[in-house]
Predict the structure of Putative nadh dehydrogenase.
Amino acid sequence: MQGMGLESIKKNPALIPLYVCVGLGMVGAALYTLRLATRNPDVSWSKKGNPEPWEAYREKQYKFYTTREKMESKAPKYE
């Protein structure tokens, strides 16, 4: 297929920004998926080590950006 080999890219250098943008998008999507899998309180990888991981976020701010200085947790207390 044209445009997929190194020789074809040398003949048509206008494809280089396209490959860079697509590559950065793929890396960004992979990193965001990795962040969701490791930092999200809804995901528990070890049930023996931490059976209730959402309790760790009761007093923490989880949002990227907030307009309030201190967020109040609306999480119910399960017992």
Summary: The CA atoms of residues 12 and 39 lie 42 Å apart.
